[in-house]
Amino acid sequence: MNSAGLIRTFIRHKVAANILMIMMMIAGFWALAKLERQMEPDFDVPGIYVGTAWQGASADDIDRSIIEAMEREVRFLEGVDEVTGRSREGIGELFINFKHGTDMAKALSEVESAINNITTLPQSAERPVINRFTITDELMELAISGPLPEPALRALAKQVRDGVTAQGVDRVYMSGLRNAEIWVEVPAAELQRLDTTLGSIAQRLAQASTDVPSGTLSGNIEKQMRSMGRQDDAAGVAGLTLRTDAQGQRVTMGQVAQVSDAFDDRGVTGRRNGNPAINLSLQTSKNGNLIAITERVDAYLEKLRPTLPPGVTVESYDRNSDALEDRIGMLMDNAVGGMVLVMAVLVVFLRPWVTFWIAIDILVSFLVTFAIMVLIGQSINVMSLFALIMMTGIICDDAIVVAEHGQTLMDKGMEPAKAVERAAQRMFWPVTAAAITTIAAFGPMLMMSGTTGQYVMPLPAISIAVIIASLLGCFLMLPSHMRHALEKGQKSPPSKLRVAFDAKFISFRDGPFTQAIAWATHNRGLTVAAAVTIMALAIGLQAGGHVKFAFFPQPEGNQAQLNLLFSPGTPREVVAKQIDEAEAALYRVEAAYGLPRGEIVKMTFGKLGVTTGNNLPEQVGDYIGSMKVEFSVADDREQRLPDIMKKWEAETKLLPGIDQVIFSTEQDGFGGDGFGFRLVHNDPYVLKAASEELKKVIMTYGGVSGARDNLPAGKPELVVKVTPRGEALGFTTENVGRQLRDAMDGAIAMRFAKGDEEVTVRVRLPESDQTEALLASLKLRSPTGMQVPLADVVELSERPGLSRILRNKGQRTVSIFAEVDHLKGNSGEIRSDIEKNHLPGIMEKYGVKKDQNDGSRQEEEFWSDFMMGMLVSLGAIYLVLAWIMGSFARPFAVLMIIPFSIAGTIFGHWVMGADMTIWSYIAIMGMAGVLVNDSIQVVSSIDDRIKEGEAVESAVVHGAAERLRQVLLTSLTTIFGLLPLLTETAFQAAFLVPMAITFVFGIGTATVLVLLLMPALLMLVEDAKRGIGWVRGRFGRRQPVVAV
Q1: Coiled coil: which residue ranges (predicted)?
Q2: What is the pLDDT of residues 829-864, one digit of tens each?
Q3: Which residue, 521, 882, 935, 961, is most buried by CB atoms nearer than 10 A?
Q4: How much is the pTM?
Q5: Please, what is the Cα angle at 1005 between 999 and 1008, to 5 degrees?
């Protein structure tokens, strides 16, 4: 059965269309219940993490001894795209990014093999941990705080962790929870008396505290034998035998050392309202339902809170489900508003019952789209919702074309059933072709690479799904319902208002509008010249900086951080006091606004021992503190975040000894309006010097803030070099370093599992012996057992330290970042100016190079994908048009609509005072297919007239005029569908508004161009064809000269 027969069957059958509609609705409602609700689309980062701990080692030691060796082994494995190394005190990390499509199971096996085959790693370094990258959805944060001892707070945190896990939370990461340890503190005098070292005691302890399988005893009853010696508490460790004296008496650990249960004194601790606190970060897998899991967690917490001790609180913050619900609510409000406006437009031009069935067609098409979304693994998220809103106006285009043509045929006297059948069959191929061009425009987006491509993917996927669903409804369901609607309309005469409006519209169409097309067509050269002039003006607006470009929009967020760096050696108690003061200052600012506590400051959480936030590379140390702050969302407060931050900084009283205070904010949305550079050099200290100079340059530009690098200064380093005398006594760098590390940090005797955590047994000096005079009095044991003063065998020198060193593709690097207030500056322009006028001088002065894959790499990848996508899209659209028109020349007249419409989008951004962003250009790619849809209908009408014998110019004029109502309907429904979003003022809609501007102004411009410019272009094509024909006739058929 061909398409005409299938359409005829559904029109004439009494219930076929309704059965199909019911089936579609059932599938849609089922899918709607199944669809996951997520903050962002799923995306995968194919990568592998390798982490290695080396106690007491500096960042430079780890970089040279561990990261360089590992990077060399994995850098050229199959599929590796980029290898980044990160070294900081005690820890080395390698991040191996693979190309998309790589077999990650095989890649993991190859990485494990390569790392395990390295034989040059330091013996005292721990075994590398190797894992694949995992992407999860952040659910929320929980802050547990109160006046409890640390063991009780830990127990409560674990109880909450287990409770939320039972509610469907996949992962819980706890911070502020220090690792449990058993300390064996041996005084230096006792070590001298026993003539031993911390390392020797640790080795003896490890041997004594262990369980050993001892075989099987055979006999009548077979028994398993085990030697039990492991001790897992302080009392048990204290009772272990260290040695036996000359009289045969046992000397236990407890007799020579203070043995106690403790916690890692260098671990991170939390702070909230002056009390100790532990933070729980709740995460769920990418296929989890964010909102449903959050509801279950909230219900659990409501039951838990009445059982908590007095003064203890469990507070949730950074709740992604709230943000998701706000965005879904905002988008749904815009969707409903857009749908109402679309229906209003349809009612103006079409009969009420026709409008009603078009509305039903839209509803069913969306329900079918939901079913397709489930089948292709999509979810409800910000991008998919925007795609649905964008398609609200486009989805009814097919139905409008068929319905409008059917109503026109009936108005000319044709019976309703025949009119609908003729309209559906006549418009099948033009509508199908229009759908194919739209798919051709959106399709190349599916090929965009990288994280941006994965983030954008729901837009083309869902748009294509909507188009397919719309085609099904338009030709199988709508015509039958249209027949009944027109029959009802035929029985009841139209209202006087409808008759008057139709008469006025026809009068306008056949009069002034047809005359305007005739003038534009007759003066086609002037018409095209005017359009070119307007396009030139639009290009000038952008080239002149009146319409700026920002790669990602940067809406105001509701997160802020404070990072405090005191002088190394500052006690934690001082850092804690500064955090408490900063917290109090923030609430004083809130009170100064005349607001009650908690109105805009929703949450604060302090950390001792580590920095926080994405705006600063992670640094650790007792002299470091930080605070994370959550404010109410920007749309719920009058105070702007930059103003709050300025007042907070001014109100905070700083304590003596503080070296650096950094107040910063995190922007909302994907990406941010900032820029960066990456410099390369083998010496990290040279990189640091170049970075400092570049940061000073960056901060001279207006609107720039937060210039920083990822190579932070650290503690001063004491460099130890073994002297010739030390070498003669048998000392090496390795054994000197081990003994110094034992003296400074303690020697780890063993680690064992106890319950759900790992306990470390550490042999160390008591705090009373850990003084500045320790190095002066420290003695080292030579390989022969001789005790030698440290100063006799090593030379000590001091140099500045770096707390972190980074590598990328085998080279040491530093990255410099900064944010730009888009109201005061443009990141692209600032970056270009620095590259042109300042960066070359810095590179020459310090001998550094600019990494070509620096902060601009993401932009370069996008532009490469965009240009390729546009070429593929335009090529596919051209082929479809050539097939429909039966010509290779005429499609160019239609395709010219696209660049002229892009000029309209530039004017739109200028009128709205908005920057063009990555989302503007993504919308342009999708809009290209939509723009030519009206052109296809107009050209189809023109061709019909030419086939009937009408003169070409007359056919062009009257064929374009004939499609006025159809073109207006398809364009206005798309524009009005997006109009609420275009006027949306919510901060969270900032990255969607440029897309709405692009569609509204681009399609609005295209409407005028299709009706006025395209006829002129078609006539120019005809002129060109006539000219070519004349040339061929004049010069192409000469008779050959015959010699006489």
Answers
A1: none
A2: 888 889 889 999 999 999 999 886 555 566 777 778
A3: 935
A4: 0.76
A5: 140
